[in-house]
Amino acid sequence: MRKVEVCPYNEKWQTMFVEEARKLKFIFGNDIVDIHHIGSTSVPGLKAKPIIDMMPVVKDINSIDRFNAEMNNIGYVHKGENGIHRRRYFQKGGDNRTHHVHIFQDGSYEIKRHLAFRDYLRFHLEEKKSYGDLKEHLAQQFPYDIASYISGKERLVKEIEAKAIEWYEGERLC
């Protein structure tokens, strides 16, 4: 059973992202438009589960399934869309998960949503602290219940996300 663990920010997370991004670029080659470090490990100072979330942006989402065997060869398990339409999702590390890969096609709204949330927390320190404290509290309250952990974050995540998207759109106009 996987334990829900939230840790203080670790500067090694950025290096772990860069190293894994190199592997993904090698596998996907010219199909990749960009690769973003997303999720809590991409926000300096934010408490997080020590799992690197990566978001490759690709030209054509339908071309990605042909790389499943190569992803498996470097330790990833293919999970299909895993609840988000037109996403390809991979996990690495089993119960000791190290990486999540969320692949979206260029132009997907999901890309903006993830980048807005990340960037908003990078610039809004009070909300970053509140979010980190809530995650830490929930991990202590539900150490072996990932569903309750996720459910406990949902309201605050939706509140931050709404503000983040509005902020992100305004920032991009400047």
Précis, in short:
The protein is α+β, with helices and mostly antiparallel strands and 174 residues long. 48% of the residues lie in helices and 17% in strands. α3 packs across α5 (146-173).
How would you portray this structure in words?
With 174 residues, this protein is an alpha+beta fold. Helix content is 48%, strand content 17%. It contains 5 helices and 5 strands. It has helices at 12-28, 68-73, 109-123, 125-141, 146-173, and strands at 32-38, 52-58, 76-78, 87-92, 99-105. β3 and β4 form a beta hairpin. The radius of gyration is 16 Å and the shape is globular.
Stretches with pLDDT under 50, minimum 5 residues: none
Q: Please state the CA-atom Rg, rounded to the nearest Å.
A: 16 Å
Strand order of the largest sheet: 1-2-5-4-3
The N- and C-terminal alpha carbons lie at a distance of: 47 Å
Number of strands: 5
Helical content band: 40-55%
**Arithmetic mean of pLDDT:** 96
SS-based class: alpha+beta
Broad shape: globular
Tally the helices. Answer: 5
What about the largest sheet? Answer: 5 strands, mixed
Strand content: 15-25%
The SSE string, one letter per element, is HEEHEEEHHH
Main attributes?
174 residues, 17% strand, five-stranded mixed β-sheet
Please specify the SSE layout and strand pairing:
Layout: H1 12-28, E1 32-38, E2 52-58, H2 68-73, E3 76-78, E4 87-92, E5 99-105, H3 109-123, H4 125-141, H5 146-173
Parallel strand pairs: 2-5
Antiparallel strand pairs: 1-2, 3-4, 4-5
